[in-house]
Design brief:
Helix content is 34%, strand content 11%. By secondary structure, it is an alpha+beta fold. The two termini are 18 Å apart.
Length: 64
């Protein structure tokens, strides 16, 4: 059987914590930043965790 490849997009977007949870970045931080407030942009900088409803889907994409 051939090896199962991970999804390249998921590989770039998600990472694992030490306890096995999945870290993610916030959306809406890449462009059209002039109309967003400084407070909004600053809060989007911090990383979050993938919700429990989506963890199985992300783990399938990452093959873990």
């Amino acid at each position: 059987m051939p090896k199962v490849k991970t999804k390249s997009g998921a590989k770039k977007r998600f990472s694992l914590t030490g306890t096995g949870k999945i870290k993610r970045k916030h959306a809406y931080k890449s462009h059209i930043l002039t109309k967003k407030t400084t407070k909004q942009k600053r809060s989007l900088t911090h990383t979050g965790l993938v919700s429990s409803a989506d963890t199985n889907r992300v783990k399938l994409m990452l093959q873990i």
